[in-house]
Amino acid sequence: MINVAICGATGYTGLELIRILLKHPRVKIKALTAKIDKPVKISEVFPELLGTFEMVCSNKLAVNDVLKKGIDVVFLALPHKVSMDYVPRFLDKGKIVIDLSADFRLKDTRIYEKFYGKKHLQKKYLFASAYGLPELCSARIKKAKLIANPGCYPTGSILGIAPLLLKKKADLNDIVIDAKSGVTGAGRKAILPLHFSEVNENIKAYKIGVHQHCPEIEQELSNAAGKKVSILFTPHLVPINRGILTTAYVALKKQAGLSELVGLYKTFYKKAPFVRVYDEGSLPEIKNVTGSNYCDIGIALSPDKKRCVIVTAIDNLLKGASGQAVQNMNIVCGFPEATGLV
Amino acid sequence: MINVAICGATGYTGLELIRILLKHPRVKIKALTAKIDKPVKISEVFPELLGTFEMVCSNKLAVNDVLKKGIDVVFLALPHKVSMDYVPRFLDKGKIVIDLSADFRLKDTRIYEKFYGKKHLQKKYLFASAYGLPELCSARIKKAKLIANPGCYPTGSILGIAPLLLKKKADLNDIVIDAKSGVTGAGRKAILPLHFSEVNENIKAYKIGVHQHCPEIEQELSNAAGKKVSILFTPHLVPINRGILTTAYVALKKQAGLSELVGLYKTFYKKAPFVRVYDEGSLPEIKNVTGSNYCDIGIALSPDKKRCVIVTAIDNLLKGASGQAVQNMNIVCGFPEATGLV
Amino acid sequence: MINVAICGATGYTGLELIRILLKHPRVKIKALTAKIDKPVKISEVFPELLGTFEMVCSNKLAVNDVLKKGIDVVFLALPHKVSMDYVPRFLDKGKIVIDLSADFRLKDTRIYEKFYGKKHLQKKYLFASAYGLPELCSARIKKAKLIANPGCYPTGSILGIAPLLLKKKADLNDIVIDAKSGVTGAGRKAILPLHFSEVNENIKAYKIGVHQHCPEIEQELSNAAGKKVSILFTPHLVPINRGILTTAYVALKKQAGLSELVGLYKTFYKKAPFVRVYDEGSLPEIKNVTGSNYCDIGIALSPDKKRCVIVTAIDNLLKGASGQAVQNMNIVCGFPEATGLV
Amino acid sequence: MINVAICGATGYTGLELIRILLKHPRVKIKALTAKIDKPVKISEVFPELLGTFEMVCSNKLAVNDVLKKGIDVVFLALPHKVSMDYVPRFLDKGKIVIDLSADFRLKDTRIYEKFYGKKHLQKKYLFASAYGLPELCSARIKKAKLIANPGCYPTGSILGIAPLLLKKKADLNDIVIDAKSGVTGAGRKAILPLHFSEVNENIKAYKIGVHQHCPEIEQELSNAAGKKVSILFTPHLVPINRGILTTAYVALKKQAGLSELVGLYKTFYKKAPFVRVYDEGSLPEIKNVTGSNYCDIGIALSPDKKRCVIVTAIDNLLKGASGQAVQNMNIVCGFPEATGLV
Predict the structure, then answer these.
(1) Are residues D112 and D132 both part of a single domain?
(2) Cβ <8 Å between B199 and D199
(3) Residue A120 sits in a domain of what CATH number?
(4) Which domain holds residue C72?
C-alpha cells in the first residue's frame, strides 16, 4: 500500500483521480488540496462522492502539511505554470511526483517559454523528468521520480501516429492532425467561451497550428522517428463532456495495403493493455472509450493508398489525464500496469 | 408571383423549404407531397407550423395532380434514387425542377452508379442540369430548367477550396478535407445509429475516402482547377442538430502570407451575398451561421506557410440544402438572389 | 417608422431584440449600449450579425447620447436592479421604455425588496408601469409609457393558468407549477454553474418555492382570480439552449371534462395571435416554439378529473423576453400586434 | 461464485448488467442471448467491451441451451409482454429469475391488462414474485425465486414518497409526481421520436396520468400507506442519455418543519447503502448519481409548509434498472447488498 496526495483536487482531473484511486487496491488517499476559499469536504465540491469519500480538501498547498501525511506519491493536477513551483519541493524530499501540467513535458525550455509565455525556472528538474506515455516510454518511466503526464491531445495523436514513424513508413513533413475535444478538456473554469449556450449546438476550430500541444506532439513524434517531425495540428471544441476523437492524416513514403497497416499497429500494441487496434473496416468512436483508460485506434487509407488516416479515441480525463497518471503510478511503483484501471 | 410544389415535404429539408417559402414575397406554395400513409395536414407532422400553415400534404407524388395546381417550380426533397424517376416527368411538362437529391449532380454516370449503387436511367436530363452552387455556377443556373442542388458537405468544401484552385495556388493532389456534421444531415430516418443515445456524447468518423460526396467535391474542384483534382475526405457525425464545420487542408504551390490569402478570398467572394470571409485571426463557428443561408470562411496557415487551412461553416439545412435551393430558384426566376433569404 | 435604442445589447435578449427589430418594417435601431470595456461593433460580439448589422455598441449607457439619436422607444435589457436607475431618466424625457428587467413588475415594493434584495427607489414610476403580458393586459399596455416586460417563467405559467382562474374553475390554493428552462434563461454570464460540463447531461431543481418569479406569478394570477392566489413553483435547469416547458397542476373546484376545458382555453385565446391551444390528446413540446413568439398550450386531466394539467411551451428568449417586448412595442405604438414577429 | 445468464443482452440495460457483473467478485456470466439476426460477439454490438469481454451472444433464447450452462440466476432484460413467456420456464427448473420487465410487478392482473394491453397468462407466478425495491421490500426479496425489478420511474418516485406515507405524514389523495427522464429510459429502439434531432433541444411531457408506471407507483405507495393512494404522474423526456430527476409534491396532513422532515428521511434510510438523503438546503442533481447505484433525495417545503417537495435523482440504467437488479441478486444470493456496486 502506498499513500498519495492530490493537489488540485477540485478540477475535473482531480475528481477523476479520486474516483480511480478510491477503488485502487494498493493506494490510500491521504491529502487533498486546492485553490479554494476555505477548507471543505471534497464531497461538498463533488456531491457524487457523498457517503463514499468525505475527506476535507485543504485550501492551500502547504507542502510540509502534505508531507506530514506520510505520502509516497504526489499527483499535481495544477494549472500550467503553477506546477513548476511545487514539483521541486516534493522531489527534493524524495517523493515521486506525477505532474499533470505541461511544465515538465517539453525538453526545450525555449519552446516552453514561447508556447506557455513564462520563463522556465526549474530546468534541472525538467531534464530529470520522464514523459509519461507508457506505451512508448515505459523504460524511462520506471526509473523516474518525476513523471510529466502527457497532454490530452498529445496522447491521442502520438499513440495514433508513432507506430508509422517507428516503422519508417511515414513522410515526416506531411502530417495533418485534426482533433475534436469535449469541453472538460478546457478545464473547470468559469469563462464565457465555456458557457453552456456558447458551446452547445456549436463546433469551432481554434489555435490552428499554434496550440501549445503542437510542440509536445512534435517532440515525441520526433523521438519516435529519430528525426525532426513537423505537424499541422488543428484542435476543435465539440459539445460533449468527455472524449477526444483524433483524425490524423499521414502521407506514406510508399503506397501500402490496409491489412498490412492494421497488422503493423496490432503487432506494435500487442502488449499494451490500454490500446485497442480495430479490425479493418471498423473505426473508433468516442462512446466506446468513455469512462475507460483505453485508446482505441482505427486505420483507413485514402483511395490512392498514399495517405493513411488514423482515427483514435480516448477519454480525455482518463487516458488523456488521470487514468494515464495512475497507469504511470502503477509502473513507477512496480504494480501491474492495469491495476485499478479496469 | 410564382407557384411552387414541394415533394418530400415531411423531411427536415422539406420543413425548411416551407419555412423559407412562407416568408418569400414572390412565392406561393401550392402543393405538398410525401411518402406517408395517408394525407395529413403538414402542421400535424410539424406542429411548429400550427396556425401558420395548415395545407394538406398528399400521401403520394401524383405528378398530374401536382401539375394541376398550376405550379411553376417543383422542389424535389426526395431520397437519392427516387428523385430520378420524377425529374423527367416535371421537366417534360416545362416546369423548373430544383432537385435536392444527388441524382443529377454527377456528370459521369459510372461514378454515380459506383457511389449510389443504382443504374442511372435518365442520362439525357443529367446533361441538361446545372450544378446549383450559385457562387461558382450562376451563369449555367440562370439558363437551366433542372438544377441539381449541391450536397451539404460539398457546399462547405467547394466554397472553401475553389478560390485557391481558380487562382492556381494549390497543389491539386494534396487536399485533405475533415468535415463535422450535425445529425439532420443524415435525414429524418428511424435508424439505430441516429438514436439520441447513440449520437449524444459521441463523435465518429465514417466512410473515410469513400463517402458519396467525394466525387461530387472532386468534380466541382476539378472544374475550378481545370484539371483533375483528388481529395481525401473524412466526414464525422457530431451531436448537434444543424451545421457543418469543414476544416480543409490544402498544400500550396509555394509559401503564401495570410493577409494575401485572406485578401484573395475577400476579393473572390466580394459580390456573393451569402459568403462571409473572416478577417485574419478570426475563424467561423457553426453557431454564427445557424438559421441563416451564409457560408462563413476563415483562413489560417500552417507554421511553415506551406499549407492553407480553410475553415467553413454552414447550416446544412439552409446553405447546405433548402436555403441554397431557394437561392437557386431566385436566380432561375430572375428574382434578386437574396430574396426571402435574409 | 420609429427609432429605438437597445441598452444591454450584448446579452442573449439583446441579440434577439436586434434580430427581430432588423426585420421589423416599422423600426430603425439607432443606438446600442452595453457594459463592455470599450466600444465595439456589435458584429464582433455576435458574429452572426457580420455583414448584416455592424453598428457600434457603446460601452456606457450615457442617457443623453442615446437621446440625441432621436429615439422613440428604449429597450432596457439590463440586469435587475440596474434598470431601476435608468428607467426614470428616459421616462422623464417622454420616451417609451420597455424594461426587460424585473424592476417594475412587482407592484408591492416590500415583496420586490424581499426577493431581489435591494431597496426600491423609484416607486412612483412603478405605479405608472403596465405589466406587459398582452394576452391579459393589453388595455393598460396601450396607454403606458413604461412597460414591465414579464419574466420568462411567469409568461409560460400565467398564460397557462389564468384562464382557469378568470373562469372561476380553480382552487386558488392548490396550484403547483413545475417548470423546465433552457440555459439562456440564466443569462450570458461566466459562472461555474453555467459551464457546459456542469449543465450538460444534468438536470437540477433550484430555489424551490423561493424563486423571484414566484411573487410575479402570484401577483398576476391574483389579478386574474380577483383574490389572493398562492402557488408552489419549482424551476429546473435543463441542458438545452432555449425554451421553457411548464407543467402546471391546478386543482379544480369541481370535476371537469377535457373537451370542456380545451374549449374554454380555445375560446379564451381566440383572438391572441401568439397563443396556440392544442386539440385534445396533443401536448406542446419546446421544439414546436423554438425561434417563434408562440406560447403553445396543451391540456390534460388527472384520472379522477379533479386536477387539470396544463403544459405550456415558449421560447424563453422570444415570448419569454425579446419577442414579447416587441409585441408590447407594437401595441403601445399602435402597430398591428404581430408586426415583425411572424 | 454463481453463474448467471443475461437474456436481452443487446439493450442498454443488458450492457449495464454486463458491465457490473464483469466486475462483480461473486459472479460469472455464462450466457448471453438477444433477439438478433445471428450470433455475434457481444463486443461487436458494444465495442466498449472489446478486449474485455467477447462472449458470443446467442440469437435466440433457447431455454435449454441456457440451462445447460449451469446457471444459477437469470436476468431477463426483455421487453414487456415477452418476459412473461420465459419466466416460468426458468422458474420451473429451480432457477432464480430477476425480471427487468413489468410483467410480474403488478399484483392485479386487470390493471396489468389495462395498462399493457395484453392478457396476463402467468398469474400464479405473479403471486410468487417479490417486488424488487430493496429499501422497502428486502424481507420478501430474500425469500423470492422471482424478483420483479422495479421500473425506472417507480424507483425514484417510491423511494422519494414512501417514507412520508409510512410515517403517516401525507394526504393520500394529493400527490403530484413530475418526472424528467433521459432517453435510454425509452430503450434502444429505432423509432422516429427517439431520433437525435427530435429529442435534442427539446423537452416534452407525455402520457399524463396514463403512463404504465402509474399503477406500479400507486401499488407500492398504497402498500406503504396501508391504504389506497392515488397519484398524478407526469413523465417528461429530456435530452440527456441517462438519469431521472423526480420532483414530487406531497400535501402534508399538517404543517411540518424542514429539519423534521429531513430528519425523518435520514432516519428512514439510515441503513440503506444506496440512498443518500441531502442536508437541508441541498438538492440532488442527476450528475451526482450518473454511473452509480445511488438514489439521492432532497427535501424542500412550500412557503406555507403545507406541501413537501421531494426531489430524487437516479441513474435510470443503474438504480432504475440493472444496478438494482444486481442489488436484488446480492440479497437473494446472500451476498452483502452492495457487492460489486460501489
Answers:
(1) yes
(2) no
(3) 3.40.50.720
(4) 2-150+320-333
In angstroms, the CA B159 to CA C191 distance is 38
Counted across chains B and D, CB pairs separated by less than 8 A come out at 64
Q: Is residue C205 part of a domain?
A: yes
Query: C-alpha grid cell for residue A202?
Result: 456549436
Do C16 and C55 reside in the same domain of the chain? yes
> Taking a C-beta distance cutoff of 8 angstroms, is the pair A240, B239 a contact?
yes
Contacts of B287 in chain A (CB under 8 A): 198, 201-202
Is there a single domain that holds both residue D163 and residue D119? Answer: no
> Which chain C residue is nearest to residue B315, measuring alpha carbons?
C48
A297: which 3 cell numbers? Answer: 485506434
At C198, which CATH number? 3.30.360.10
Which of A114, A196, A208, A242 is the best mutation test for B, with the most CBs of B within 10 A? A208
Q: Do A137 and A282 share a structural domain?
A: no
Any domain includes C87? yes
pLDDT at C127: 85
A99 CB contacts (<8 Å, ≥6 apart)? A76, A83, A87, A129, A146, A147, A148, A149
Size of interface B-C (CB pairs under 8 A): 38
Q: Give B301's contacts in chain A (Cβ within 8 Å).
A: 209
* Chain-centre distance for alpha carbon D273: 16
Burial class (CB in 10 A: 0-12, 13-18, 19+), B117: exposed
- Residue A236 forms beta bridges with which residues? A180, A205
**Whole-angstrom distance, CA of residue B138 vs CA of residue B157:** 18
In this structure, are residues D18 and D85 in contact, taking their beta carbons and an 8 Å threshold? no
Assess if residue C338 is contained within a domain. Answer: no
Residues D10 and D103 in one domain: yes
- What whole-number distance in Å separates Cα of residue A49 and Cα of residue D288? 8
pLDDT per position in chain D (342 positions), as tens?
A: 999 999 999 999 999 999 999 999 999 999 999 999 999 999 999 999 999 999 999 999 889 999 999 999 999 999 999 999 999 999 999 999 999 999 999 999 999 999 999 999 999 999 889 999 999 999 999 999 999 999 999 999 999 999 999 999 999 999 999 999 999 999 999 999 999 999 999 999 999 999 999 999 999 999 999 999 999 999 999 999 999 999 999 999 999 999 999 999 999 999 999 999 999 999 999 999 999 999 999 999 999 999 999 999 999 999 999 999 999 999 999 999 999 999
User: CB-based contact (8 Å) between D16 and chain A?
Assistant: no
Beta strands in A157-290 (DSSP E): 170-181, 204-205, 232-237, 244-252, 275-277
CA geometry: angle at C272 spanning C266 and C273, to 5°?
115
- Cα(A99)–Cα(A88) distance, integer angstroms: 11
C83 phi/psi in degrees, rounded to 5: -55, -40
Contact with chain A for residue B290, Cβ under 8 A: yes
Say if residue D134 is in the same domain as residue D184: no
Cβ–Cβ of C50/B290 closer than 8 Å? no
DSSP string, B284-313: -BGGGTTTS--EEEEEEE-TTSSEEEEEEE
Q: Which of D201, D240, D249 sits opposite C287 (nearest CB)?
A: D201
The ipTM of this complex is 0.96
Q: Is B338 within the bounds of a domain? A: no
Task: For cell 493532389, name the residue.
Answer: B173
DSSP structural state of residue D302: -
Q: Do C232 and D249 touch (CB under 8 A)?
A: yes
Indicate the burial class of D273 (C-beta count within 10 angstroms; 0-12, 13-18, 19 or more). middle
Number of domains in chain A: 2
Same-domain status, B184 and B104 = no
Q: Which residues in chain B touch residue A111, judged by CB atoms under 8 angstroms apart?
A: none
Q: Is the same domain home to B59 and B168?
A: no
D196 to chain B: closest CA residue: B196
